[in-house]
Write a structure and sequence with these properties.
About 35% of the residues lie in helices and about 25% in strands. The chain has two domains: about 1-105, 3-Layer(aba) Sandwich (Rossmann fold), CATH 3.40.50.170; about 110-215, Rossmann fold (3-Layer(aba) Sandwich). The chain has helices spanning about 15-25, 45-50, 65-80, 95-100, 125-130, 165-190, 205-210, and strands at about 5-10, 30-40, 55-60, 85-90, 105-110, 135-140, 150-160, 190-195, 200, 210. Strand 2 (about 30-40), helix 2 and strand 3 (about 55-60) form a beta-alpha-beta unit. The longest helix is centred in the last third of the chain and has 24 residues, at about 165-190. It is of the alpha/beta class. An eight-stranded mixed sheet has the order 3-2-1-4-5-6-7-10, with helices on both faces. It has seven helices and ten strands.
Length: about 220
């Protein structure tokens, strides 16, 4: 069975990109990375891709007069790469309906909170300030509204007394690296269905569908 070719879009260091690269090294993993694309030429994640012999491209959003021009350039690069799924991994640009329409249900994102709580940026600071006892991360299908769309998989981690944004972020990141490859596997194995904006994962057990690791 042919592997699903994916593109990973990044803006920074690419730690979730690395988790996907590591997963794809397993011969039994059903996906492969065909392109790493960044809007930032100096993004450290591009070097991770080059070290893994993965094709890279840079399309700077500041090089275009408007969002449509930028997104048209992204769409063109993805089309040339022949990928079937787009994975956002720290890609710090909102994608509009113009981009998402031809890629409906084929763009996924990972966010460092238990969505729909704490959308946007500065998540860990806001979680601590709120007094929440749990935080975590979410892989979801992307919709035009920020950090919205059907949830594929989540992992929860506790917020410890005395946590700083940095210590909480590190604990959440461990779970991000675990669940993103799992979500891509579900898609590549054609096990994921979306019904009324809810994800159904065929053959998934309850622990697989909603991971919780409160002891870590």
């Amino acid at each position: 069975m042919a592997k699903l070719k994916i593109a990973v879009l990044i803006s920074g260091r690419g730690s979730n990109l690395q988790a996907l690269i590591d997963a794809c090294r397993d011969a039994d993993y059903p996906a492969e990375i065909g392109l790493v694309l960044s809007n930032v030429g100096a993004a450290a994640g591009l070097e991770r891709a080059r070290e893994a012999d993965i094709p890279t491209a840079v399309i700077g959003h500041k090089d275009f007069e408007d969002r449509k021009g930028f997104e048209d350039a992204l769409l063109g690069e993805l089309g040339r790469a022949g990928v079937g799924l787009v994975c956002l991994a720290g890609f710090m640009r909102l994608l509009s309906e113009h981009f998402l329409r031809p890629w409906h249900n084929r763009v996924v994102n990972i966010h460092p909170s238990l969505l729909p709580s704490f959308e946007g940026v500065h998540v860990h600071e806001r979680v601590i300030e709120s007094g929440a006892r749990l935080s975590g991360c979410t892989v979801h299908i992307v919709r035009p509204a920020m950090d919205s769309g059907p949830i594929i998989i989540q992992a929860a981690v506790p917020v410890h007394p005395g946590d700083s944004p940095e210590t909480l972020a590190a604990r959440v990141l461990e779970q991000e690296h675990r669940i993103y490859p799992m979500a891509v596997r579900y898609i590549a194995e054609s096990r994921l269905r979306i019904v009324a904006e809810r994800v159904i994962i065929d053959g998934a057990s309850a622990p697989d569908a909603a991971l919780c690791n409160p002891s870590s």
